[in-house]
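S., here's the first fold you wanted:
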Amino acid sequence: MTTLQPAIRPASETPAAVAGHRRRELAEFLRTRRARLTPEDIGLAPGVRRRTPGLRREEVAQEAGVGITWYTWLEQGRPIKASSQVLDSVARALRLDEAEREHMYQLADLPLRLTRTDAPVVSEALREVVDSLDPLPAALLNSRWDLLATNEAYRDIFSFWHDEPCQMRNILWCTFTEPEVRARYLNFEDEAPRTVAQFRAASANHLGEPAWTEFIRELTERSVDFAAMWARHDVARPGVRVKHFLDPRAGLLRMQTSSLAVSDMPEARIVVYTPADDETRGRLPLTRVAAGQ
């Protein structure tokens, strides 16, 4: 009589092994999402025939506004930290839908964000509107001040604000953490508190949402100035403001900001920078990167 031996069950994976498995799954998932896109999908010229389908890593990194080395490590499954803001930028660059975005969050071992806080994919028509405002700098923002789309004039005028590409793709983050901002943003002491007050007002609609809570915590820990302004509990509405920028190519620029509501994207707005005086209007072309090359 044959005696049946009990099946040998594999031991449970250790936390480190589970984390490694998640990173490998995330890496493979990102590679497959990248492979399904074409340069035309993100507004690039098709170029020469490619040996492998899909976008290149550097193209995804550029579209997401993150460093190529960081994104390469993410696709290689290395143990690097990815914040929700950075993953949102990657999701937008890879054109992930709701299910794919949630799957990416799970693999990255981050709390799932509530649907209402997720930035929708920006339509090509809306991107065209933002682009068409050139030569005026313009950006599409959500209520958390995440940059959803920018035109070339915007990217040119703020190109000297960063030592490296801004991985967070968020105006608040750049304003309070980039070392060059204080030297470039001359009326920071007047305008930064109002920006935080607008952010505080918008946050009332997102209390308890993981993405907002995490972002506020990280920025409070990173910036003493933001922490102090946030603690005041001041609130304000968006409005027309004049900001003074010192550009290394054009000199002093006085730029008026106007916010335009976007009817099909709740809480989103297009912010347009227009010269506040004739002197600035004459200097604005000097901010174009092509002109300085």
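And the second, which I think is the more interesting of the pair:
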Amino acid sequence: MQDMGIDAAKTGMLSSTHIISVVAKSVKRYGFPLVVDPVMIAKSGAQLLRDDAISTLIKELIPLATVITPNIPEAERLTGISIKNIDDAKVAAKMIVNEYGAKASVVKGGHLNLDESIDVLYYNGTFKEFKSPKIFTKNTHGTGCSFSAAITAELAKGKDIISSVETAKRFITNAILYGLSIGKGHGPINPTAWLYIPAEKYHVIEQLKKAVEMLESHTEVASLIPEVQMNLVMALPYPYAKSVDDVAGIPGRIVRIGNKVKASGAPSFGASSHVARAVLKAMEYDKNIRAAADIRFSNEILEIIKNLGFTISFYDRREEPPEIKSKEGGTIPWGVEEAIKRVGKVPDVIYDPGDWGKEPIIKIFGKDAVDVANKIITIALNLR
């Protein structure tokens, strides 16, 4: 505090009466905004706050809290209220403010048996609910700590309590969604996803721009553009690529104009469906394969690909199960998986001989968009 100052602070596991008293005295002395995370019980069920310390927490520290963030078991322990639903959570949140003296209370609803995770904030005489989809994962280690830390960081920036909790809710939902499977027990959440995903999106777009420039600068590539046109895509890295919205492509695709190649638009996320689904399926087998493009099918092109030493596989739509064929968007993932199983790995090339009303297509896979563009250009330069 005497060196650089404190704009806001949070508490975590304090364990004993003496520690809580020392912390309370320091907070009183300096008067900074305080977020109290009343850590009482570990995920293993072990007690982290001694029984005699609970009354000290209630009497000395909670009255100093700008925001307190108990989960359901902690709120039950603090208030003596059995919390079975959102209405019970509201009663507990209000009690912690009106009777114990906290400025605001957030009772976290992750332990409730609901389809959503609903956190209840009581502040300034009113309730506000913060909702997110329930994420079923064992990688939840650090959830409460990171949530309270995010609120603290927002308060330190000068944000108000409601917007601080709102941002923290989005932050922690993202961190849980991209949690890391490390070790045998509860894996950690991934708070770096908040920064990592925007950074990776920028990298993907730059890669695609460079790859498109390469393709557009080689007129030979025009001979590889299929009737359905070409799309070139690149996904976010594992574990961030979960849907087609996490894969960037070219809106309107890459088209042939005379003997030239031209992208119809600037790369953007969610701009591809078919090729994006192919990449997502390939990533399930090899996390390093993050890009793909489709080119024209011919036996001559296949022969060139073989001579270049690329690994090749295929799928036959005639073998597609009826339940897959009837499912919108099911063919491509099924086909890619079948092709991978034929060779035991993700190949450089997967071809589809086509079917009634379906143009035969060759898909080129690679570790990034530039890698795929290089493969396409090499094929084009060998095509007479």
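Why I say that: The mean pLDDT is 94. The radius of gyration is 28 Å.

Talk tomorrow,
H.
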